[in-house]
Amino acid sequence: MKPFDFVKPDDQEGVISALAAHSPRVRILAGGTDYLVELKHVSQSPGTIVDVSHLKELRGIEEVEDGLRIGAAVTHTEIMAHPLIEKHVPAMIHAAHTIGAVQTRNLGTLGGNLVTCVPSMDSGPTLVALEAKVTIIGPGGSRCIPL
User: What is the pLDDT of residues 71-100, one digit of tens each?
Assistant: First the structure.
C-alpha cells in the first residue's frame, strides 16, 4: 500500500476545504467496502483520503416536503431497517438486501454504492425508477441532479 494523507474534517465545510486543498489527488471515504480493497492493489498513492463517515449532514433518513432525504453515508443495513423507507420506498429495502454479505451491508453506504460505478451497483436502478435526485456539494457550490 502506498502512503497517503488521512483527513477527518469536523463538518461539511471542512470536507469542502479538504477537497479544494488536495484536489485532484483526493478520495472520499465513508464505508470503504470497495475502496479499501482497491487501495491495497493500486500502484499510485491516492494522495489524500477524506473520511466523511461520521458527518451528521451525510447521515440519517428524514421526510422532506417532496419525499425522503437519505444521507450519502447511510448504510444499507440502516436503509433495510428504517420505518420511513418501509413506508415510502420499500423497493429500496429489497435492493439493499441484494448487496453483498451482512458485513458489506453494515459498512457500505448508499452514496458509495452510487459512485463506485460497477455494473453490479444495486441501488442505482431502484433510485432511477423512483426518480431520485442527488445533491452534490463541493468547492464550487451545490447542485441537484436527477439520476
Answer: 999 999 999 999 999 999 999 999 999 888
